[in-house]
Amino acid sequence: MLPSNMSIAFFITLFAGLATGVGGLIALVAKKTNTKFLSASLGFSAGVMIFVSFVEIYPKSVESISAVFQGQTPQLIATIGFFGGMLFIAMIDKLVPDFENPHTMHSEKEIEAVQHNEELPRSTGDLYRMGMMSAIAIAIHNFPEGLATFTATIQDPSLGIPIGVAIAIHNIPEGIAVAIPLYYSTGNRKKAFFYSLASGLAEPFGAFVGFLLLSQFFNDLTFGILFAMVAGIMVFISLDELLPASEEYGEHHVSLYGLISGMLVMAISLIVL
């Protein structure tokens, strides 16, 4: 029997993935990146993901596993799942070279130099390779993120929606990372936009594949383990990618205010919804 929230889960996952296309569009249309706004947005996204991981997702993991096991076992399984999720995304990071890794941040001056075609440190061929490899790397990273968004939404749509929005925000600069080098190496805006958009489609693809593999095993224990892994993945992404990027693109206090705002909005939404 198919979960009742499946269509909502796929829609939210698709929305999050398509945000890379928004980043690509911004990179090709805007003359200058608003790095302070980007900094605040990334901090906000990190705040949402960290808060919801520890306050909502991890406790739900323990609660779900408690329906199967008693005593300290649910806490132990959830803890293993949490750090297992961190290890999983860390291994993906390790397999992607730093140069093509979307988690490797670039300064404001580097972004603007590429946008204005000034002092480009690499040849046109190298820029094209950079864009294509960035698209592949981002697609690889988006795969587990898609499964995370899908899993959270199918269990609780009110929880999945803010997670989907937070991941969508953090996908925007990844779209920029794909579109800029491809555009300046080919001069083709449509191609640059297409690849930035396509890299984000790994999110719903990850959700689809994950559902096919796990649909027969959806139960309290499976959801509990997946929720723990989702929490670990999102905390890792926040600490490894979002917060460093937020500070790199803006100022420390802009990043901090964004982080606190994200936590506050998430806290209020959990109370109201």
Characterization of this structure:
The chain has one domain (9-29, 37-272). The protein contains ten helices and no strands. The protein has 273 residues and is mostly helical. Helix 1 (6-29) packs parallel to helix 6 and helix 5 runs antiparallel to helix 6. The radius of gyration is 19 Å and the shape is globular. The model is unreliable at 102-110 and 118-122 (pLDDT under 50).
Provide a quick synopsis of the model.
By secondary structure, the protein is mainly α. The protein has helices at residues 6-29, 35-66, 73-95, 108-115, 124-155, 157-186, 189-200, 202-214, 220-249, 252-272.
Summary keywords:
10 helices; globular; 273 residues
Strand content: under 5%
Roughly what percent helix? over 70%
In sequence order, what are the helices and strands, one letter per element?
HHHHHHHHHH
Shape: globular
The overall number of domains is: 1
| Cα gyration radius (Å) | 19 Å
Count of alpha and pi helical runs: 10
How many distinct beta strands? 0
User: Span from first to last CA?
Assistant: 27 Å
Q: Let me know the largest β-sheet.
A: none
Contiguous low-pLDDT stretches (5 residues minimum) are 102-110, 118-122
Q: What is the residue-averaged pLDDT?
A: 78
* Backbone structural class: mainly alpha
Would you spell out the secondary-structure blueprint of this structure?
Elements lengths: L5 H24 L5 H32 L6 H23 L12 H8 L8 H32 L1 H30 L2 H12 L1 H13 L5 H30 L2 H21 L1
Helix pairs in contact: 1-5, 1-6, 1-7, 1-8, 2-3, 2-6, 2-9, 2-10, 3-9, 5-6, 5-7, 5-8, 5-9, 6-7
